[in-house]
Amino acid sequence: MNRILKLVGILHVLLIQCAFASKPVLVDQPDSVYLFSYGANNPSVGLQFAWSPDKKNWNLIGGGNGFLRSDYGPGGSQKKMFNPFVIFGADKMWHCIWSLNATEQIYAHAASENLIDWNRQSYPAVSKGQNFLRPGIKFDLNQKNYLVTYTDAKGKFFAVETKDFKRNDRGREISAEDYIPSVDVNLPSSKVSGQIHRVKWAVVDRLIKAYELRNFKNIAKEETTQQDAYRFAGLKPIEAKFTVNAENAKPISNTLIGIFFEDLNYAADGGLYAELIQNRDFEYDLHDKFGSDKSWTRSHSWTSAGVGVSFTIDSIAPVHPNNLHYAVLKTSANGGSLINSGFDGIALKKGEKYNFSLFAKLLDKGKGNLKVRLIGNNGDVFGETIIAVASGPWRNSKAVLTSNATVTDAKLELQAIQAGRLAIDMVSLFPRDTYKGRTNGLRADLAKTIADIHPRFVRFPGGCLAHGDGLNNIYRWKNTIGPLEARKPQRNIWHYHQSVGLGYFEYFQFCEDIGAEPVPVVAAGVSCQNSRDGGNGQQGGIPMEQMDEYVQDIIDLVEWANGDVNTKWGKIRAQAGHPKPFNLKYIGVGNEDLITDIFEERFTMIVNALKKAHPEIIVIGTAGPSFEGTDYREGWDVASRLKIPIVDEHYYNKAGWFINNQDFYDSYDRSKPKVYLGEYAATVPGQGANFESALSEAIYLTSLERNADVVSMSSYAPLLAKEGHTQWNPDMIYFNNTEVRLTAAYQVQKLYGQNSGDQYLPASVTLSNSQDAVKKRVAISVVRDSKSKDLIIKLVNLLPVAVKALTDFKNITPLGEKITKTVLQGQLTDKNILPAVAEAPLAEINSTELPPYSFTILRVKTK
Ligand code: AHR
After folding, report:
1. What would the mean pLDDT of 67-81 be, rounded to a whole number?
2. How close is the Cα of 463 to the center of ligand 1, in Å?
3. Helical H runs in 429-519?
4. Cα of 131 from ligand 1 centre, angstroms
5. pLDDT > 90: what percent of the chain?
6. pLDDT of residue 374
7. pLDDT tens across 602-648, in order?
8. 38 SS3 class
9. CA-CA distance, 702 to 705, in Å (whole number)?
10. CA 482, 485, 491, 496 torsion: positive or negative?
């Protein structure tokens, strides 16, 4: 093990030298060489290069990694590059086109200045041929356009002409002689078809260096504390001297810490949304899970019991057209019943009241009664009541049940007292004790856990959920407000079902209840770039003829949230019980979108319409799913061009990345839009999330506070996960029906949320050991909260040795003799960990000991 660590260390140093040597000394550096471009055997890997001095002896570049990957369609089944063809164009750009699949009459194109950074991809359609295979390109000097040739499955040859790789003209069949072929080359590994280019050595040199730098970064990312015994062998306790001068204070965002809520991992239905009945609307559908779970049908979670009882699903004359299906309980004798098993059972608390409601009608003429019971497995009855039912229109009935026991696995039984046919829909059971006692409200313990973070904003409803799987699955806020039976439930992109009982009204209400700004995210007129339901990825946006209506929905959202009660949408909000405006300030447009022309066109429409109708709204743009790459660059370009105030960045990464990238925003261009780090989380390779990854988040957050003049918001992701129903790991808060488990990441978020400020006091730092790896693992962040006048000092020590923190404060007058000291410390592998909070003498702000691997916060009142 030690030898491996040593080797990693040596390689690390070598790579640092490779990547950062100011001028590599190249003996007999060639002027020009041959560069061969070709596609990887595995089409998901993408574009490859090799170089040769003589066209015979080829050297592979990039260790098998692709320099350009296809973004078309959903990952897995698509995102493949077949037979790439590269040329150096008349515009002095490299152009690559490739075939995407065996079925469609389209191809892909991307351009690059250096073969490393590729611009956005386009997917132009052709009209001739069965499909588009084995392309070739050349530039036609006379026509001043590109000639693209290809074959199809029938072996015919075709050509189109294009100036921009967006529109194709003059599609036609051509003879085999006019087809532009690739050439075969014997690489060390195999014979491959591609293109040979004569290039300056610098082109190859850059490709090699780009690959080496990528390697270097990958190694840095893999750093964990397991290597500390080697990395810090013989390290003595460190002395860290900090100087903080209040005169250098700068204003920072007071909305830095927020939360991102997405209905993922049963976060809403079965989670934060306190409804206890699963599939209350009988709308679960096999398609929610693409048919992979045969039990996921309209009757999921429901069973019937009793002699001569049957239970069917019908859709004639539903409660509401948005809620098409309902159950019909047919009983030939008294006592037949329909039973719901809840989400992993129904948890009840002794003495607690539960609000029950349903829509019902007898399908045979007459009147009758329905017994509603909370039952156990052994004939136990924990509570019961009787409601009247009758033929005629649907009737909404309500009742209250009080539980006589505390149990975790109760069921709800609806027992027909008389024989006949009873139609039933929207069966609901809510604890009375929801967060802040709201009807149709939220689970109190979970909501309180979230509120304890003291988030300044809530981003919702996703994530991927916001832009949906395919255009029909885009989250439309208007479908999520109003009476529950009129809301439009739909498939959840995370392969389950959204009742949308937790809809926009409830999200806004929750924000108000916890004192957080609502940050709704709307799709940018495109669905998820990995969409596989009803189309290929994000290549089709909402058709332009429907965009006006879509844009109007977004404008209406502002009126619904902020308009007075006399406006159309303000009135609807008031009717729902909130006459006062919600004071919406932000709207996120887009989420991790593929930045294509289709995206830009629609995004621009939405942004311009919002600017015009509601210049007061702060629009948050999007920059892809990573901290680098095409979508990141292009997303930022679009946002900067449109002068979007804030851009949403996402990066899930390894703890080593967060430790090694604390300078990510230090040299950030302050004239550009501000940043919302909307989704991030660290993991330790092979271990997932634990105290070690949380410490790397804590240290990274010191750098966000340092840069909170430009990083105005941040939120860890994902927030919630129900045990046994988790599609994404790690998450910040785990729960089951009765318990909430707080992770180390939660504690870090909570400590930052509860200890944030609106002024940053820069600190100069001198460490007794100036090793780079040491410097990166000791961090300080000093902020002041102008309301409380508290000075808050955050200190992170990610070293295996103690650090003595000696801080000299200038122009600060502390008050009192005591401070509050909070220390988060434990085993690095701990998943759950609690901070220790205690009073400490005032002198500790000047001299305190930071235990190995710890996060300390000192909070002191000032004058
Ligand atoms: O947080 C989980 C998912 O991660 C989000 O839905 C999406 O935006 C990102 O890919």
Report:
1. 92
2. 5
3. 444-451, 464-467, 504-514
4. 34
5. 93
6. 98
7. 999 999 999 999 999 999 999 999 999 999 999 999 999 999 999 99
8. strand
9. 5
10. positive
